[in-house]
Amino acid sequence: MTTVDTINPEKRSTGEQLLRLARKNKLSTFGLIMFLVIVLAAIFAPLIAPHDPLEQNILARLQDRSPEYILGTDTFGRDTFSRILYGLRISLLIGLTSTVLAMILGCALGIIAGYRGGWIDSVIMRCMDMLLAFPTLITGLFIVAVLGANFVNIVLAITVTILPKFARVARAPTIALKEREFVEAARALGFSDLRIMALHIAPNIVGEVVVLASLWAAYAIRIEAYLSFIGLGVAPPTPTLGTMIRDGFEHILDAPFVSIYPGFAVLLVVLSLNLVGDGLRDAIDPKLRD
Question: Where is the ABC transmembrane type-1 domain (predicted)?
């Protein structure tokens, strides 16, 4: 009796294969460990932070590192280290949420366009081309400026800017996969188009999508920092890394650490995600496998 596993042998343990191959790349493993440490620090910020991130101490404003304030204080005397931990929460939440949404919507549109073809393909991909015609940062700025600066609108803006990337990546392999034998066999068994796209095509493109997701998550976090820096991020006094960099910019000459430390935090997050993405890319590239 024919089963789904015999129809689609390529779908088995793709995630496990990626994980096994990524372990061979030590730099990628280091990036993954770094990212996990950052995520854990953000999750347990209330337990790790030595001070309330909103508590002001004017007498200690612009203070450099000290036993009480590990990374100094900002212009209002708030603890920089505590604010970075809480700022990482916002940056990671916005960046990862928008990336996951863009991945789901973009891949769905790309698979539909590649599988159905014809006018459906043309309409979907021309819409994606329209979004790609504008610089991603400008598109994000426009959406946030029109809808207003809050968590939901920022996530929406970043999702829209990176969604076309996933759609284009998902469409190309779908066009090739829909002619493969296991898809033809699924059609012969009477499977619906939706079932074929969800259970037979989507799992086979997950490798490329995961690589793109890790790389564009880093970009999404940078976009959030840019928007916060120009005043279109989450409203104060909620700490965000971009807002902290902007607040310390006017003291860049006499107290550069106010901007440097949150900037370094953004650097570490982006670097760790890029290292993970590079490792995953090497893992799924047949030319780079052992």
Answer: 88-277
Report the distance separating Cα 5 and Cα 17, nearest Å. Answer: 17
DSSP labels for 92-153? HHHHHHHHHHHHHHHHHHHHHHHHH-HHHHHHHHHHHHHHHTS-HHHHHHHHHHHH-SSHHH
Mean pLDDT, 10 residues at a time, the chain of 290 residues: 44 54 70 90 90 84 84 87 91 91 90 86 88 80 81 88 88 83 80 80 82 85 86 81 85 84 91 83 59
Paired tokens of 104: 């789901």
Whole-model pTM over 0.85: no
- Identity (one letter) of the amino acid at 268? L
CATH 2.40.40.20 applies to domain 15-48+65-288: no
Q: Is 73 helix (H, G, I), strand (E, B) or coil?
A: strand
